[in-house]
Structures are given as C-alpha cells and as structure tokens.
Design the sequence.
C-alpha cells in the first residue's frame, strides 16, 4: 500500500492495513510555514538561533536557573525577561512575515532589516535599564529622552500587531491606545483626565499594565512552553498518530470517516490551537474520506470546520486565550482547563449524535476494515504520545507545575521519538520544527504585545470601572440583556480580530459588568471565549468553514451555513453554563450530575430534530407533520439541556416537565409522520 501522493487524498488503499494513514511529506511545511517568508539560509539560521535563545530565556526564567547572575549582580527581574522576550520574538516578525502581500518572500527587504535591528536595539536598552525602570517608576517619571524612545517602540509594536493580526487589530489598537490623549474630548460618561502623548507612550512601554501586562505575562510565563509542546507533537508525528487512531477506532462504523473527523480534529485542535490549521491538516484526510462514502461535499466541509473549531476549546492544551484567561481570573491554568471539559465534551457529543443521525438517515456505511490501519499497529507505533500526554496531565493536575510541565513533556517526547525509526527527526526536520515554532511564537507575541496596549490605555484612564457601571445601567441591570450584548459583541469582534484579541478586549470592558450583576466570573470569561470562536463557523466570515470548503471543493457560503446547522448546539452551550456554573464542574456533585445528564438528553433530542432521525424510533419522516415534530423536539431538547436552578429560576423538575410537555407531542407527530411515510413507501 503506497502513501497518498497529495494531502487531499483520504485513507490509504491496498492490502497492508497495518501501514499508518499518512499525508505527503510536504504537508506540515505547507500548513505551518506557508504564510511565512522563506528568506534563504542566512535568515533561516538567524530565526533558528533566535528561537533557541527565546527558549533558553524561558527555561532560565521558569526553572529559576539564574544564568544572568554570571553577568549581573542579580537575577533577571520580570520586566527584563519580558523585554528580552519581546525583542527576540517581535523582531522575528519582520523576518517571518512580509509587510504586504506582494512584498518579497525570498529575502528580507531593507525596511524590514531596519525594523528587525531597531526592535532588538530598543528592547536591549530597556532590558539594560530594567531595574532602574522599576525602582524609579518610569511609567510616571521617565526621563524625557526615554519617552521619545518609548514612542518608537510603540510604533514598532503597532506594526508588528498589524502583521500578526491584520488591519483590524492595527486600527482598534491604535485608536484605543491613544485614548488617554483624547479622553477629555469624549462624552461625559466616558471622559476623564487626559495625558500628553509622551506620557502615554511612557506608560505603555514602562508600566506593567500595558506592553508588559497580562497578555504578554501569560505568553511569557505559561503559553510559551505549551506551544513548544504542541508543535513538537505535530512534527514528531503526534497529529498523524491521533488521526490514525481515530480511523482505527471509528473508520469502520456507520458514517465512520465523519466520526473520525470529530475525534481526530478534537485531539489535533487541542495541540494546534488554530481552527484553520486544523482544517487543512486533518481535513486533508477526513473530507475526501467522508465524500467517498456519500457525504455531500458541503456537509463534509461543515463537519470538519465544526470539529476543528471545537478543538481550540478542548483541554488539556487548548488555545492561547485559555492562558490569558487564567491570568485575568488569577487562577491556575488547570482550573480553566477543568472548567472547559464538560462544555467541550457536550459540543463534541452533539456533533457525534448529529453525524450518527445523518449517517443513519442517509444509509452511510463506514470504510472497509482492510482499508484501515489496525489498532494494535497504531498503538505499537505511537504509544509514547499517550505516555507523554499522561506525563503532561499528571504534572499539571497532581504536581501543579504548570510552567514546568510542557518543557518536561517536550523533552521526553523528543528523546523517545528519536528511538522510533518511522518518526525520528533528522537535523533538517528539527530545524524546520524550530523555524515553524519560532514563526508561531513570534506571531502570537506580536499580537499579544499590541493587544496589551488596549489594556494599558483603559487602565491609564480608569475607564474599566466607568464602562462597567455604564454597561450595567444601559442593560437595566438585567443579566440576560448583558449576555446577549456580550454574545453579539464577541461575535462581531471575532470576525475582524483574532479570538485572543477579541477576548482580551471584552475581558476588560464587558466581563466586569457581567460579573457585577452577579454572574460567575469563570462562566463569564468562558462565555466570551466561546462566542468569539463562533465567528469561525458563522457567515459572513466563517474562516474555518471557508478553509474546509476549499478542501471539499464546494461553495464557501453554503459550507458556512451548513456548519451553522451542524454546530447549532455551540450557540446555546455558553448560555447554559452561565445560567448554572455546575456545567463548568463548579458546585455540589449531585447538582453537577443532574445538569450534565439533562444536557446530554437534551442535546440528543436537538440532534434528532435537526437531522430527522431519533435513536429507537428511526426516521422522523417528511412533510408538515415531520417538521412540526422536529421543531418541537428541538425546542424541548433545548429546554431540557438548559440547567435548572441558578439564573433561570426554575428547578430541575419544573424545567424537565416543561421540556417533556414540549418534546412529547413532537415525538408523537414525528412518529406518525414516519409511520405514514413507511406505509406510503410499502404501498
């Protein structure tokens, strides 16, 4: 059995079913590195060295090695460490990412060379004076020359944010970061005492609330190691292992390739943290395989888009936003990851149920077992990925060593992997891994550094408290009105910005207002994250769905609307866990069990209504009776899935009774329609 010749092919065909399903050798390069420059050997080496330096800086800080005591009289203080990391990472943006689409991609032009050197020079200066900056409070009392230097770095960070996050990030960050300068000109409810332009620049660059604030602190102290680990999994074959595992477990069952997409994309998305990367990597295998068993092209693309989007919310790694959230909430990352378990599982169970119903309704079978890898062969080849994941979880949950865990896991993975002849990294592949990792780290650092300026501007003007009070007043103190405002704002910002940037913006402005009206802080922040993610599968800018459509070879917009239908549950889950935080595993055990059980049954009914197939009953028929019954099932299912107690004000029994009253007639009508349809067909 030969390997596919292109990433777009599905499972391997042939006699040797023990051979893993693979993609072309260039797939990782295409997916991970395509948007970056390939500027030649010299700059590739520079990027490689800078990524190694950044990694050593992170290890020195996390493990408190104290390397710099060899040169300084003291260990690096935190602002010096972050300045160094900003310098190394942000400077690489000007090597990796072209200034515009038609800019050279095979070399670094002169203006990027200037920006590269300027970034390193400025941050080296701030690192040298880091202790003095703290002791003399330069954010309020900087020397005049230091204020002018701060203006230059401010401009550099804005440009880095533009390249990393797009023009929307540049516009929003520029306007908001200048807010302290023109705040006195704003309407009374959002006005305040203004600062000079130079004083604002000094506050942004020297305070621990802006450039050095929560976004970059989360990057420097937590996310750095997890991104190293996630990328190491991809480059050592971990992503392929989980795809093969999914095919071995589920490829032969009803609608097998579609269920494989859900399983593999959930796992791979947890590692990659990016819906589009996830679609292009796992979708290259799962979408053609789905089409081969009769799944419509737009449905295959929609399934992959929904599964890939959910992967970013799947513990244990999740995406960058989860680490920033932990800093905002002042809790451990494990606390955030544990809270995300039930909502993400509910979402994937909802997808799985819909796919099973769709497959049953359309008579879709799985792939023949002789075309799939054997489970034993998959485990034999990649058992150590599970072992490394287990080490990571053990260190996170039981040893509570969040900062150290990903570094140990990465080291163990890279060592064990070298004893596997199928996945052993060559020097060339190792350099590619470091280069791609550096690109992802640089891109994220540029984005977070820029978004940190938003945090600083609102802190400098004291607007966070004022906006909180104004929003509560505007909503009349009604939590549901504020939630709807938050959902719409998160979605709109998610269209134009990255999820992390949109979340940070709302975590400063809207989250305090929601918390002030009595909602649970974890639920509020998770709500904002979920609704920011929805822009990836919701038109008009459903980027994950559009990427899947390109693989499925169908219309982007129709794929987006199909993704909305298949992913319907995700639009309601955030409201459910805000109504009752027991869905985030917060509360008494009995309450948690009840709300999870009712949510699962409710999601089953919703899936049946959406797809027209109910387990135990079969097809729900066609025609007017069927549609009335299906709508009734959906409404009843949503009512049952909504947790009793908490914000809704109805007990579990009361809500359950209402749900049964709504859903029961629907089941009867659907059964009646299905019976008539069967009788007509037999007649």
Sequence:
């Amino acid at each position: 059995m030969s390997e596919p010749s292109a990433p777009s092919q599905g499972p391997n065909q042939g006699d040797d079913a023990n051979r893993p399903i693979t993609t072309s050798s260039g797939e990782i390069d295409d997916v991970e590195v395509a948007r970056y420059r390939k500027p030649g050997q010299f700059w590739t080496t520079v990027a490689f060295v800078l990524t190694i330096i950044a990694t050593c800086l992170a290890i020195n800080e996390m493990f408190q090695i104290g390397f710099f005591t060899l040169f300084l009289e003291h260990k690096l203080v935190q602002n010096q460490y972050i300045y160094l990391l900003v310098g190394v990472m942000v400077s690489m943006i000007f090597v990796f990412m072209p200034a515009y689409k038609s800019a050279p991609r095979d070399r670094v032009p002169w203006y990027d060379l200037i920006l590269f050197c300027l970034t390193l020079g400025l941050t080296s200066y701030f690192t040298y004076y880091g202790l003095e900056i703290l002791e003399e409070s330069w954010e309020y009392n900087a020397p005049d020359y230091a204020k002018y230097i701060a203006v230059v770095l401010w401009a550099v960070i804005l440009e880095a944010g533009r390249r990393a996050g797009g023009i929307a990030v540049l516009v929003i960050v520029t306007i908001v970061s200048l807010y302290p300068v023109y705040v006195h000109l704003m309407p009374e409810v959002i006005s305040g005492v203004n600062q000079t332009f130079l004083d604002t620049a000094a506050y942004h660059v020297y305070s621990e609330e802006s450039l050095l604030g929560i976004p970059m602190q989360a990057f420097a102290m937590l996310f750095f190691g997890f991104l190293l680990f996630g990328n190491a999994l991809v480059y050592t074959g971990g992503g392929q292992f989980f795809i093969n595992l999914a095919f071995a477990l589920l490829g032969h069952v009803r609608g097998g390739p579609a269920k494989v997409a859900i399983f593999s994309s959930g796992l791979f998305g947890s590692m990659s943290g990016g819906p589009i990367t996830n679609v292009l990597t796992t979708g290259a295998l799962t979408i053609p395989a789905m089409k081969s068993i009769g799944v419509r092209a737009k449905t295959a693309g929609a399934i992959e888009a929904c599964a890939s989007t959910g992967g970013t919310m799947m513990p244990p790694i999740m995406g960058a936003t989860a680490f920033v959230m932990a800093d905002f909430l002042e809790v451990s990352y494990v606390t955030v990851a544990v809270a995300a378990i039930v909502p993400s599982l509910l979402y994937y169970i909802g997808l799985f149920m819909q796919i099973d119903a769709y497959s049953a309704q359309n008579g879709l079978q799985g792939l023949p077992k002789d075309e799939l890898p054997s489970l034993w062969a998959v485990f034999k080849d990649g058992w150590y990925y599970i072992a490394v994941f287990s080490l990571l979880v053990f260190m996170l949950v039981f040893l509570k060593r969040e900062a150290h865990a990903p570094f140990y896991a990465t080291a163990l993975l890279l060592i064990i992997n070298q004893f596997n002849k199928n996945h052993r990294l060559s020097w060339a592949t190792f350099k590619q891994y470091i280069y791609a990792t550096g690109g992802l780290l640089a891109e994220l650092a540029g984005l977070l550094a820029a978004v940190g300026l938003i945090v600083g501007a609102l802190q400098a003007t004291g607007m966070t408290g004022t906006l909180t009070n104004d929003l509560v007043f505007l909503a009349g103190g009604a939590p549901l009105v504020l939630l709807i405002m938050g959902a719409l704002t998160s979605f709109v910002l998610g269209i134009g910005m990255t999820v992390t940037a949109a979340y940070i913006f709302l975590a400063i402005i809207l989250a305090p207002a929601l918390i002030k009206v009595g909602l649970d802080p974890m639920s509020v922040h998770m709500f904002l994250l979920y609704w920011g993610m929805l822009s990836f599968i919701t038109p008009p800018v459903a980027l994950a769905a559009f990427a899947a459509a390109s693989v499925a070879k169908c219309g982007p917009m129709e794929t987006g609307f199909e993704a909305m239908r298949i992913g319907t549950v995700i639009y309601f889950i955030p409201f459910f866990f805000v109504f009752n935080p027991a869905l985030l595993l917060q509360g008494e055990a009995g309450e948690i069990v009840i709300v999870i059980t009712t949510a699962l049954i409710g999601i089953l009914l919703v899936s049946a209504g959406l797809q027209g197939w109910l387990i135990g009953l079969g097809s729900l028929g066609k025609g007017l009776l069927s549609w009335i019954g299906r709508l009734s099932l959906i409404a009843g299912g949503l009512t049952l899935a909504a947790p009793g107690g908490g914000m809704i004000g109805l007990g579990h029994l009361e809500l359950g009774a209402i749900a049964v009253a709504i859903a029961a007639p629907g089941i009867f009508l659907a059964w009646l329609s299905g019976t008539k349809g069967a009788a007509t067909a037999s007649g």
User: Anything to note?
Assistant: The longest helix spans residues 427-461. The radius of gyration is 26 Å. Residues 1-34, 678-683 have pLDDT under 50 and may be disordered.
